């Protein structure tokens, strides 16, 4: 540890400046799913390029058919040192419902939690602007003290992670030689708890679908037509209501193909983490796990697939009442995938499940939103061991090797397209409210995140045992 | 017939002026369900009072807790003549989706249909401003030619028919002596077809409900929580999907209490009207009846109860995708009632059906929207015979005695609160698009509607056989 003190001290001394840079980045409302914010996405990419260029990176904004990528390179002090590709995303989720935010989502605001933690509130503070800057600021500390980096470092920042990453595959294909490294580093995950660092070794995949059921050619009066004319909301709710059986299992034929039971020793390790259903759910006002019966919440969210309705709409939804049979009704559905589930097969099976339930005089329209398989990193590898040791040194507690309920499609693409594995280390906390109003990031996460990356870079640079 | 020619001719001669008055009334956007249009509802009421006062009615705007009522009285030439209460409503449905209107909904526009019918397009032209003015203009023709009316006439115009009529019961209670007449005349129904006049002898009742299912205390990320946290859209669609069995029957326990099978002779009469499922549904782009199996569309819409979802919403519904598990999800549901179904018992049974399916760590909120029982008029009565004869004379075809799928709550209240039966005669056509974009009224409906009321008033005034 002693030989890193200069770099770690530099990070400590620069914390206020680092937080100032995070504020600048959060102020840019780079909502990728909303076309009216396309200019803001470009602005965020340019901000990052400028920041990296100042540090000596060869950085550039790269155009895509959607929001741009940021790519940057910096040689290590030793050309023979490992080459890493750090990935993060500068785009953020929409902010609705805006009325539930206690501060402007794009004016980052410092405050203290009731238990004394200093936090910064704002959209993207945690997911993923604060996280990606932990690595950038770690590089900055290395540069300031040593004038160089211990690894050959490339960086890829994406601007479409929150909207299905449509440009990612073509971009990786077109730039595979430039982007392929020995290992990817990804900072878009969380701590186990506020004291325990974590490395995520498995992630669920995702298949996203939007469906619209069409019935009559126009909205109908439910008095004149009710009982005789097809109601698309009935058809839609009927189908969605059939998607799970009474034990919580998904009923789509073939859905569980490729899903393995979690090995007993892994289940035992997870049980040892001591997360009860009550402790997991009480924080959000719930108490009973709602998925497949007889499984722990960690198994349900890390190792089991889901079919989740994320949005539904149809007919009259404003105040008051309108006795209408609408012409159409819609829903957005996401499937979280595990093991060897094929995201394309899941999409096809769902579409067949729906289509076979549509009356012959009605129709259904499908729209795909994102496709990624689940991924699993080997429990034993030098990189995992090095990173685990570095994290343990910084946090004073053994790093937990955990699963992830969410998908990070890029990790799958790194594996399948660039033959590159990913080390997933992040510092988000469960109460960060990502994707929700009042998203925040702990200043401690940011500060010790920077210090963690300084240590991980050093550990990865050390010759293998 | 000969002795009515002067009154009928006066109506013919005044048609342009009558249409001008209809245009003036349609121009007032009196949407009762939308609070921002409260001033317009008041304006419409004042317009009607002014119009009736000019004709010699003792007319006034009557305040309520909601939108005002219009009440007017005019003595008949013979004090011993029957006393009728004419009812209509000056409020209209919302106009969304506005982009589907081909003209401004509140700028009435004349045009011709492909088959040569002259129509006026605009919100309320048919439901119910055009219809209520047929009676007002009939009175005007009587006054202009005879200087008097053949009946003792009272008028009640409501401004909350499209929003559940919250003020109607208290108003009828407070003014029962003033409003009670020998017979109510209601003009809010339709013709059998463009050539065949109709009198509606049965109407379905309505129970309206809005439900909101609450789960977590905030929106959740479906990656972190999916599979473990309750999703209120799943709960809602699961419950709504269970509301009908595979034969189309409603599954709520006790729902069919008070529903009788339609007598065979009535079914035969309806079958004789020659309306096939195909002819009824093809106009709106459908072909198969969707309700209870094995019943005709006339039986389904006139004599069978329904549970219809009129609106559903929850989660992320804007363009793009958001992997959220929302905190709540909602739906608006209306029940069409027949026979002796008790609207309050239906509401209670539905709430029990829903509540019993809510997980213990979630909750549900209910909101009532309108309550009215079904009503049936006796097939044989002097008034029905007189009105049928008058309509047959005007249209040259026998009047059809039909059922009505929609509810007109006021008719039930007239029966239960004022002991008064209602004669339901209207001139709307099936393609009037009421409650939908491009609502219209045929000029012929308006013109011959006025002439029909002139004849009905005369027939009701004649001494009983």
TrEMBL record, chains A, B:
<feature type="domain" description="Peptidase M20 dimerisation">
    <location>
        <begin position="202"/>
        <end position="361"/>
    </location>
</feature>
<dbReference type="InterPro" id="IPR051458">
    <property type="entry name" value="Cyt/Met_Dipeptidase"/>
</dbReference>
<dbReference type="GO" id="GO:0046872">
    <property type="term" value="F:metal ion binding"/>
</dbReference>
<keyword id="KW-0224">Dipeptidase</keyword>
<dbReference type="InterPro" id="IPR011650">
    <property type="entry name" value="Peptidase_M20_dimer"/>
</dbReference>
<keyword id="KW-0645">Protease</keyword>
<dbReference type="Pfam" id="PF01546">
    <property type="entry name" value="Peptidase_M20"/>
</dbReference>
<dbReference type="GO" id="GO:0016805">
    <property type="term" value="F:dipeptidase activity"/>
</dbReference>
<dbReference type="InterPro" id="IPR002933">
    <property type="entry name" value="Peptidase_M20"/>
</dbReference>
<keyword id="KW-0479">Metal-binding</keyword>
<keyword id="KW-0378">Hydrolase</keyword>
<dbReference type="Pfam" id="PF07687">
    <property type="entry name" value="M20_dimer"/>
</dbReference>
<dbReference type="GO" id="GO:0006508">
    <property type="term" value="P:proteolysis"/>
</dbReference>
<protein>
    <submittedName>
        <fullName>Dipeptidase</fullName>
        <ecNumber>3.4.13.-</ecNumber>
    </submittedName>
</protein>
